[in-house]
């Protein structure tokens, strides 16, 4: 189930049209253009709402993504590396987003710092292929209100993160 804040964030992200993955040469280029347009719009929306919380870039082929995400808590800025690969079967299969520095520090993580997205995210993603893309995955899985560090079982402190 998606909360109202997430629903609002998702509604501001353009839906994608091209169903193509890394193996679909020319169509993949078109899909990447749509991905970048959606990411740019999402970042603009976040900045307008004073909720800027991530930066992403990719390799030349658009198959490996990396960057930073951050949030403020108790006047401390927590900044983490974020990374993921685009699966060969993308967009049918969603990317597995990882925050490697949080590996083992919160209950909402798999080995390697991959964020647990199975229960709510995967069915929603499946219903929205090919409309959802990287910006949608970030909004649903890593946005500051969904951040694994906000989990009550998190062991994050200012000292053990940096």
TrEMBL record:
InterPro entries: UBQ-conjugating_enzyme/RWD, Ufc1. Signal peptide: none annotated. Pfam families: UFC1. Keywords: Ubl conjugation pathway. GO terms for cellular component: cytoplasm. One of its GO terms (biological process) is protein K69-linked ufmylation. One of its GO terms (molecular function) is UFM1 conjugating enzyme activity. Belongs to the ubiquitin-conjugating enzyme family. UFC1 subfamily. This is Ubiquitin-fold modifier-conjugating enzyme 1.
